[in-house]
DNA sequence: CGGATGATTGAATGGTTATTCATGTGAGGT
DNA sequence: ACCTCACATGAATAACCATTCAATCATCCG
């Protein structure tokens, strides 16, 4: 069984199914993180403050998002700043993310 | 922890998180089914023929989609015809589904 | 009424994934 | 150097989920 809805990861060249990407997004915490990042980069402490989850748990979720290349991280002093990956940023105004296989808009 | 991204199920009145709906979609088989149904209603045998999964497995997935009210089913003689639920059908042309909390377009 | 076709259900199993706890790392302040 | 703040990692556990098998239900036809 193989879905037609696949897209090629730019960096690895491996084929990533749309379902796999959606699976990353299909989590309350991770979706909330993406929501936050739609309004701009934030460091972990800020994300954590707005979501109110355990820090270590958030860290695990951030790693899943990073591995899926939905977000990018860079260090800034003691903080680590997360932002939406360029590849998923929607060009049109309004909150939307582009997964390659599909576009998700949060009306 | 509670996401802002929630929507109220019309029939049950219960609150359904966006993540939960995405979780239903985040599966190769179920996503492929939705893809098929975007081009119109089909009965189980037809879906099965185009996907090539075990019939009983498809049935389980169809139940998940039904429970999530993403698809509707009606009996037609020996067949059972599945179609996209009205509530998720996109009004704009092009293949898209409306989850309430967000809109997913398959470009 | 059988029997055949088309589809659903339930139980069992294995694999995946979220969560927690304990620990480790990196950077700035004193 | 030491301590503290900010975050990440790894292992362990528990919950969940997809898949398979066996059995059942519904409809049509001879």
Assembly status: homodimer
Q: Sheet bearing the most strands of chain A, described?
A: 3 strands, antiparallel
Mean pLDDT over the residues of chain A: 88
Number of helices of chain A: 4
Considering DSSP H and I runs of 4 or more, what fraction of the residues of chain A is helical? Answer: 25-40%
Give, in order, the helices and strands of chain A: EEHHEHHEEEE
Shape of chain A: globular
User: Most extensive chain contact?
Assistant: A-B, 30 and 30 residues
User: Order of strands side by side in the largest beta sheet of chain A?
Assistant: 3-5-4
Distance linking N and C termini of chain A: 33 Å
Which structural class fits the helix and strand makeup of chain A? alpha+beta
Low-confidence runs of at least 5 consecutive residues of chain A:
none
Strand residue content of chain A? 15-25%
Instruction: Report the count of strand segments of chain A.
Output: 7
Radius of gyration over C-alpha positions of chain A, nearest whole angstrom: 14 Å
């Amino acid at each position: 069984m193989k879905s037609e809805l696949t897209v090629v990861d730019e960096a690895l060249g491996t084929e990533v199914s749309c379902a796999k990407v959606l699976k990353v997004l299909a989590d309350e915490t991770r979706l909330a993180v993406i929501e936050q990042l739609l309004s701009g980069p934030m460091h972990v402490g800020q994300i954590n403050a707005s979501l109110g989850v355990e820090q270590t748990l958030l860290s695990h979720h951030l790693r899943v998002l990073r591995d899926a290349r939905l977000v990018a991280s860079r260090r800034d002093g003691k903080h680590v700043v997360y932002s939406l990956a360029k590849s998923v940023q929607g060009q049109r105004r309004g909150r939307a993310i582009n997964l390659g296989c599909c576009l998700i808009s949060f009306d």
